[in-house]
Amino acid sequence: MKGLTVLGGIVGFVVLMVLSSIFNGYALSVLWGWFVVPTLSAPALSLVPAIGISIVVSYLTYQHHNYVEKEQSFGTQVLYGTITAIIRPSLALLFGSIVHSFM
Predict the structure, then answer these.
(1) Distance between CA atoms of 26 and 30, rounded to whole angstroms?
(2) What is the maximum alpha-carbon separation in the chain?
(3) Which end of the chain has fewer CB atoms < 10 Å from its terminal CB, N or C?
């Protein structure tokens, strides 16, 4: 049973990484369209290149923060990662939409 739990955690982690990359790419493409395209007359950024750029920027700017206590269970750590993966791009889109409404 423990091996099945570990396998489920690994699969969940991979799914989380994929969905997080897609959501971050989506947020980047929307924010790019709101601010960079009209300001710099740059071409629009579609979803697939935005995902790639988001991955590169995350890779280059990653800083490890040990917010999760080591005593927490693996499930709690996955939940924390899931919440972070959803909230970060959501807040960027929320604040970006507020700023965009003043343009």
Answers:
(1) 6
(2) 56
(3) N
Amino acid letter for position 52: G
Q: What are phi and psi of 80, to 5 degrees?
A: -60, -45
**Which own/partner contact pairs does 26-31 have at CB distance under 8 Å and 24+ positions apart?**
26/50, 26/89, 27/54, 27/89, 27/90, 27/92, 27/93, 27/96, 28/53, 28/54, 30/93, 30/96, 31/92, 31/93, 31/96
If you search the block for the tokens 């489920």, which residue do you land on?
8
Tens of pLDDT, residue by residue over 15-38, are: 888 999 999 999 999 999 999 999
Residue 51: CB partners within 8 Å, gap ≥ 6? Answer: 21, 22, 24, 25, 28
Amino acid in the structure at residue 95: F
